[in-house]
Specification:
With about 700 residues, the protein is α+β, with helices and mostly antiparallel strands. It contains 15 helices and 31 strands. α10 crosses α11. This is FACT complex subunit SSRP1.
């Protein structure tokens, strides 16, 4: 058993939707990373106090409890994973992974138990279902009923809206109402936002880009309250994924971006990002509505009771302390103008694209954040409207495509360098096979090899110049990849300073002669037909000869096949070979040497047997087909020679063509053909007349 266990395609339920990710168990902690959001849950090994193995909808699942009261549930395990996990938990966490059966009776009466952040509904000591109380948005009570309403998730096709519990009256204790006691247990752990108490601090009239307007931001200990003229939003700090502080291109303003999951809603509109715009020159003196002791105890020196400075610094500092997340800023990227962003357009709206250390973020309409780990490939494409710009396309592993258009051509080299340094897959790299070994991923942007299609475009340009003489050959498609060098050539051709209308008008008739020459067709070169080479005969396998020896890997595979099957029950043939390949690569030199010596012995034995077999007269014989072909070939040669002799006997000039005849043009050749035909007819006529005269003269001579 190793020090670490890793599992892919493990699912975590988030408000009714399944999010896949990767789960890793190590001696120090348990880490789960979501593929969708990139959010990481880390559970220290020392805090684990409960581990259950359960049969769930996606196969098997594991439920982990911590000493701090948090519950984590992960599904998607196989039945065979139980033994590995159980042994790992005993060895590293000193605790047992217990098996827990779920109730599948379908009864709707049972016992409600509150255990930490979960409400479990049990039937005969077996759990029927569990409700995370953090998903509860509202709790209402009736005479003998408690109604729970839930936060909605836009990613789910079907959402659970509410659940009603009937609570029977308590006959023994009349002083305590069981309905109120049930509701209080729910509200203590529920995610019900109630603006009770005073705000820690208030920021007045801040400019907000999404949602658009000016809002007062009231900072509470557990949530953020946006109060505007039309709408109010309450944002729990638990929904904040990331914080970004981005400088504007004009160097006078700053963006503060808050990434949210789930998003805030206004009707059918969803806001996944909260974007605030600040002026760098605006300052503020801030006093927190807390005592100095409470500030020191709560924030551990991150904040002080009285603070002063730029407005954007104060807002970002307070948010960082309350949300307890790092603030992401642009890295080392610098564009052509020296700014840390690139001006571009996305979905017909102009904005700024920021290349970060671990992704890209576009502000502001609509905001887009793309992490490197979810990017499949990027593409540099030619701009559709003008030759002075290009498009930057990003394709994600989920199949979504984001096109950032109208980027200035001067930004191409810097952006290409950045993408290359981050080792992202470039779709239209277009290097030749011979150049691949010499590519430097960190090369300077001024070098020619940065241009994705430079070599290919040059070759295509030469072909167009040679093949097409008309003006139509100058047009090029908008879907071709971006190439700054080629655009310079096109622009030079369009606006050639040497070309003028007067030159063409002065030439007069000469230009007409040149155009007439262009119309003359090029003489076609007739290539002599090469004689076809005889097809090679396939080597026939000699069944009587000794069999070829197996390689070291095949000898090892034959001996290990049954062991692989027993260790992986139900494994397919293809999976066996795949698994065997991995195992063979992991073998050390000493283990492989044993099988290589066996293979060497088998090879020597084979060579010996083959030599003896050849000496005894064995070996592949020539096939009857070959002999037939040989005999057939001789007959053809005889036919050819006989036909040649006959032609010689006939003689005549009909088949003979002189050198002058071959060199004549197409028109003269047609006339000569016509003349030769008439000549032949005349000769034929004369020969027929002579024969008739001879026939008439012979009987007369015999009578005499």
């Amino acid at each position: 058993m190793g020090d670490m266990l890793e599992f892919n395609d493990i699912y975590q339920e988030v408000k009714g939707s399944w999010n896949d990710g990767r789960l890793r168990f190590s001696k120090q902690n348990v880490v789960y990373k979501s593929n969708k959001t990139g959010k990481v849950d880390s559970i220290p090994a020392g805090e684990l106090n409960q581990a259950q193995w359960r049969r769930v909808c996606l196969g098997h699942g594991i439920k982990l409890g911590t000493s701090t009261g948090h519950i984590y549930k992960y599904d998607g395990f196989r039945d065979t994973d139980f033994e590995k996990l159980s042994e790992f938990f005993k060895l590293n966490y000193k605790m047992e992974l217990s098996e827990k059966d779920m109730s599948v009776k379908g009864w709707n009466w049972g016992t409600a138990k509150f255990s930490g952040p979960l409400l479990s509904f049990d039937i005969n000591d077996h759990t029927a279902f569990e409700i995370p109380l953090s998903n509860v948005s509202q709790c209402a009570t009736g005479k003998n009923e408690v109604t729970l309403e839930f936060h909605q998730n836009d990613d789910t096709e079907v959402s659970l809206m509410e659940v009603r519990f009937y609570v029977p009256p308590n006959q023994t204790d009349e002083r305590q109402d069981p309905v109120e006691a049930f509701a209080q247990n729910v509200l203590t752990k529920a995610d019900v936002i109630q603006a009770t108490g005073d705000a820690v601090c208030i920021f007045k009239e801040l400019q907000c880009l999404t949602p658009r307007g000016r809002y007062d931001i009231r900072i509470y200990p557990t949530f953020l309250h946006l109060h505007g003229k039309t709408f109010d939003y309450k944002i729990p700090y638990t929904t904040v994924l990331r914080l970004f502080l981005l400088p504007h291109k004009d160097q006078r303003q700053m963006f503060f971006v808050i990434s949210l999951d789930p998003p805030i809603k206004q009707g059918q509109t969803r806001y996944h990002f909260l974007i605030l715009l600040f002026s760098k020159e605006e300052d503020i003196n801030l006093t927190l509505n807390m005592s100095e002791e409470d500030v020191e105890k709560r924030f551990e020196g991150k904040l002080s009771k009285n603070m002063s400075g730029s407005l954007y610094e104060m807002v970002s500092r307070v948010m960082k302390a309350l949300v307890n997340r790092k603030i992401t800023v642009p890295g080392n990227f610098q564009g052509h103008s020296g700014a840390q962003c690139i001006t571009c357009s996305y979905k017909a709206s102009s904005g700024l694209l920021y290349p970060l250390e671990r992704g890209f973020i576009y502000v502001h309409k609509p905001p887009v954040h793309l992490r490197f780990e979810e990017i499949s490939c990027v593409n540099f494409a030619r701009g559709t409207t003008t030759t002075r710009s290009f498009d930057f396309e990003i394709e994600t592993k989920q199949g979504n495509q984001y096109t950032f258009s109208s980027i200035e051509r001067e930004e191409y080299g810097k952006l290409f360098d950045f993408v290359n340094a981050k080792k992202l897959n470039i779709k239209n790299r277009g290097f030749k096979e011979g150049m691949k070994g010499n590519i430097n991923e960190y090369s300077d942007s001024d070098e020619d090899q940065h241009d994705a299609y430079l070599e290919r475009m040059k070759a295509e340009g030469k072909i167009r110049e040679e093949g097409n003489d008309s003006d139509d050959s100058d047009g090029s498609g908008s879907d071709e990849s971006f190439n700054p060098g080629e655009e310079d050539e096109e622009i030079a051709e369009e606006y050639d300073s040497n070309a003028s209308a007067s030159d063409s008008s002065d030439e007069g008739d000469d230009s007409e002669d040149e155009s007439a020459k262009k119309k003359v067709k090029k003489a076609k070169v007739v290539k002599e037909k090469k004689e076809r080479k005889p097809r090679k005969e396939k080597k026939q396998k000699d069944k009587a000869g000794p069999k070829r020896p197996m390689s070291a890997y095949m000898l090892w595979l034959n001996s290990s096949r049954e062991r692989i099957k027993s260790e992986n029950p139900g494994i397919s043939i293809t999976e066996i070979s795949k698994k065997a390949g991995e195992m063979w690569r992991q073998l050390n030199k000493d283990e492989k040497e044993e099988w290589e010596t066996k293979a060497g012995e088998a090879k020597r034995q084979y060579d010996k047997l083959k030599k003896e077999y050849k000496e005894s007269g064995g070996g592949p014989t020539s096939s009857p087909r070959k002999e037939k072909r040989k005999s057939g070939g001789k007959k053809d040669e005889k036919r050819k020679s006989s036909s040649g002799e006959k032609e010689k006997e006939r003689g005549g000039n009909d088949s003979f063509k002189s050198r002058e005849f071959i060199e004549t043009s197409d028109d003269s050749s047609s006339d000569s053909d016509h003349k030769s035909k008439s000549k032949k007819k005349r000769k034929k006529k004369e020969s027929e007349e002579e024969e008739e005269e001879e026939a008439v003269s012979t009987p007369a001579s015999s009578e005499e």
